[in-house]
Amino acid sequence: MTQLNHRVALVTGSTSGIGLAMARRLAQAGAEIVMNGFGDPAAIDRLREEIAESAKTPVHFIPADLAKGAEAQALVKQTIAICGRIDILVNNAGIQHVAAIPDFPDDRWDAVIAINLSSAFHTSKIALADMQQRGWGRIINIASAHGLVASVNKSAYVAAKHGIVGLTKVTALENAKAQITCNAICPGWVDTPLVRKQIEARATAQHCSIDEATRQLVGEKQPSERFVTPEHLAELALFLCSDAGGSITGSAYSMDGGWTAQ
Length: 262
Fold this sequence. Notes:
Number of domains: 2
Radius of gyration: 18 Å
CATH class of the largest domain: Alpha Beta
Oligomer: single chain
Low-confidence stretches: none
Number of strands: 7
Strand content: 5-15%
Mean pLDDT: 96
CATH architecture of the largest domain: 3-Layer(aba) Sandwich
């Protein structure tokens, strides 16, 4: 597929999980990719080379600590400096911490809000200036089912993801007359390293197997009782980046196995 030929896509948090699937799929569609995220430098370089070779498109990696607004903005500026432009921005980077509000550490609250919400503002701010000059752009914010509904012990994550949905709507309205769209994707449970940590913590706390902890975690929220896959989410992102998605803006798309339909 070559529908994104000559487009440049920056995907934050793309060294694993949902972001990695997004980077792969957009590359397969012809986009030049800028990856970002944490991990072993050698392993990241192998991933970058593998995607570039498979998709026959340039793939770059730019490190940045998205908890710091200046680094988030610099990430987009470096993307433009290297690639000449930015057409697609996928704000995917995220972290999680689970605790009741009275026990929630202040530094964990600040970190979750900074990475899951504020970083999307900082990257979008710089990207939009470039997109507006050229009259085309796509911003996709990876929210969550928790951007639409709440769960106990996840105050910072729920607040951040609700904020992402609100930021998506404002971004869409401010750019509605341009060919610049902004949408949110709201996954349910996805089998990612972030969710695996929650499963392991549950298994330890309840003295049960990983399989049983997985069944409990997914089944109590998601009627399908199946994980959403990163690849399914990436296909939705690709559609939103296409010309066919040009009139879709300000929307929050649930892909959650029925979670928020209840």
